[in-house]
């Protein structure tokens, strides 16, 4: 079974976004990762709903939308209409997490929950059976190009055990510091999907880099 690769457009050329989306289409990537930042939940601002609509016009792969925003439930339906296939909200940003998961499912999208590096996987015990995806941040969210926090490997293993114990079908995704050194260790620990931004778009041959990750 190949590893799902979700190239992060946060590291793409914003002036040539269509070109980089088409590059992803032509690669071995099954998903494309779209980071939404509001400058409040994280100290940066990135894409919004109009850009997601624009990406949707060109993307032929699954659109993996990561909402790094406060009160994400307000915008779930809008992002679904903009083309999101997976909508991932942060545990730390949701006052009523179960309600937000239900809302995502009601739109027909797959529901994911992201955890910041300091948040233990055990907080998902009551909702893990309802999730399609858990995104573990292996860096502090908000900026690309950061180094992976080493504790992620054990965290993946703990999450894998929680998923198996609950009978959940949730996939495990990791975002941050994915490269040639860390990716094999992450997959060995139990990761199903790798988000890679700088490592892909900063490489000499992005398609080959994606292919190498997918073959892990």
Largest sheet: 8 strands, parallel
Under the CATH scheme, the architecture is: Alpha-Beta Barrel
Rg (C-alpha, Å) = 16 Å
- What is the number of domains? 1
Tell me the strand percentage band.
Answer: 15-25%
Task: Give the spatial strand order of the biggest sheet.
Answer: 1-8-7-6-5-4-3-2
CATH domain class name: Alpha Beta
Low-pLDDT sequence parts: none
User: Looking at CATH, which topology would you report?
Assistant: TIM Barrel
The number of helical elements comes to 8
| Count of strand segments | 8
Mean pLDDT level: 95
The helix/strand order is EHEHEHEHEEHEHEHH
Measured distance between first and last alpha carbons:
9 Å
Helix content: 25-40%
Function: Catalyzes the reversible epimerization of D-ribulose 5-phosphate to D-xylulose 5-phosphate.
Catalytic activity: D-ribulose 5-phosphate = D-xylulose 5-phosphate
Binding site for a divalent metal cation: 33, 35, 66, 175
Cofactor: Fe(2+); Mn(2+); a divalent metal cation; Zn(2+)
Explain what you see.
Helix 4 links the parallel strand 4 and strand 5. 32% of the residues lie in helices and 20% in strands. It has a single domain (4-214), classed as TIM Barrel, CATH 3.20.20.70. It has eight helices and eight strands. The radius of gyration is 16 Å and the shape is globular. Strands 1-8-7-6-5-4-3-2 form an eight-stranded parallel beta sheet. The mean pLDDT is 95. The chain has 216 residues and is of the alpha/beta class. The chain has helices at residues 17-25, 49-56, 76-81, 97-106, 152-166, 182-189, 198-201, 206-214, and strands at residues 4-7, 31-37, 62-68, 86-90, 110-115, 133-137, 171-175, 193-196.
């Amino acid at each position: 079974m190949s590893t799902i690769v979700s190239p992060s457009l946060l590291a793409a050329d914003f002036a040539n976004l269509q070109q980089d989306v088409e590059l992803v289409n032509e690669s071995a990537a099954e998903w494309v990762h779209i980071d939404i930042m509001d400058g409040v939940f994280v100290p940066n601002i990135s894409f919004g709903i109009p850009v997601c609509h624009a990406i949707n016009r060109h993307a032929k792969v699954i659109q993996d939308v990561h909402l790094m925003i406060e009160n994400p439930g307000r915008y779930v339906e809008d992002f679904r209409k903009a083309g999101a296939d997976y909508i991932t909200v942060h545990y730390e940003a949701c006052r009523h997490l179960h309600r937000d998961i239900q809302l995502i499912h009601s739109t027909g999208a797959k529901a994911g929950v992201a955890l910041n590096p300091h948040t233990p996987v055990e907080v998902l015990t009551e909702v893990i059976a309802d999730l399609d995806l858990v995104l573990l941040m292996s860096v502090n969210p908000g900026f690309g190009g950061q180094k992976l926090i080493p504790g992620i490997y054990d965290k993946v293993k703990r999450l894998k055990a929680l998923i198996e114990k609950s009978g959940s079908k949730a996939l495990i995704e990791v975002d941050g510091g994915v490269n040639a050194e860390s990716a094999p260790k992450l997959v060995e620990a139990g990761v199903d999907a790798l988000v890679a931004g700088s490592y892909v778009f900063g490489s000499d041959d992005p398609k080959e880099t994606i292919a190498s990750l997918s073959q892990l």
